[in-house]
Amino acid sequence: xxxxxxxxxxxxxxxxxxxxxxxxxxxxxxxxxxxxxxxxxxxxxxxxxxxxxxxxxxxxxxxxxxxxxxx
Length: 71
Description:
The chain is mainly alpha-helical. The protein has one domain. 80% of the residues lie in helices and 0% in strands. It has helices at 5-26, 30-33, 40-70. The longest helix is centred in the C-terminal third of the chain and has 31 residues, at 40-70. It is elongated and about 55 Å long.
């Protein structure tokens, strides 16, 4: 069974946020330990930020193409 795009759009950030809260509760040096790229904590902070930025710039590019094509 494949999940639809709107379901994944809502589900993925919620799962990432749940993972972030789990890491924050389990790791004793949470804010200081997230600076190394070898840490899983670093990527749990990076993913929730990267996905909305990617979606924004993807839509920005799509709107630019639509406006350029119709003018």
